[in-house]
Every structure is written in structure tokens, then in C-alpha cells.
Amino acid sequence: MGKVKTGTVCSVKGCDEKATRSVSAEKAREGLQAAGAAFEDEQPRRLYLCQKHYKLYKKQTKQDKKVDKWRYGA
């Protein structure tokens, strides 16, 4: 059983909602810091995001994903 199913809270500072997704910390930091979200000081491998912050993450990284698809021919 993963951490999301056990009831982990969102990794964004000040958010106490239940996490719904787990994403790579490196990619999430790039996308969400541009939107103004702050994270805890430690450097984990995974970040846990609630539905609201996951939606924000998807919006911020949409263009990067599109460019990567073009680059690698998928």
C-alpha cells in the first residue's frame, strides 16, 4: 500500500488537504515554484499533491511535456 492510500497530506506548505497524487520532486518543484507554491525544506524524492495542486502542476508543465514529445518523436 502506498503513501497516498494511507492518507498522506499535501507536500505544499500551508496545505492540509489529503494527497491524491505522487509526483517526482524534481519535476514538481520546477512547475509549481513558477506558480508561487512553496515546499518543505527537506529534499525528498517524491512530492505528494492534493487535487488542487496537482491540477496546477499539470497546467504549469503542459508546455514542457509537449516539447519533450516533439523532441523524442512520440
Side-by-side strand order of the widest sheet: 1-2
Strand percentage, roughly? 5-15%
**SSE pattern:** EHEH
- Largest pleated sheet: 2 strands, antiparallel
Low-confidence region ranges: none
Shape: globular
Q: Helix/strand/pairing class, anyone?
A: alpha+beta
Write down the overall mean pLDDT. Answer: 84
Describe the protein's architecture and organization.
This protein has about 70 residues and is of the alpha+beta class. The chain has one domain (about 20-70). The chain contains 2 helices and 2 strands; from the N terminus they run βαβα. Strands 1-2 form a two-stranded antiparallel ribbon. Helix 1 (about 25-35) packs across helix 2. The N and C termini lie far apart (about 30 Å).
In short:
The chain is 43% helix and 11% strand. It contains 2 helices and 2 strands; from the N terminus they run βαβα.
Secondary-structure map:
Layout: E1 21-24, H1 25-34, E2 46-49, H2 51-72
Helix pairs in contact: 1-2
Structure keywords:
74 residues; alpha+beta; two-stranded antiparallel ribbon; 2 strands
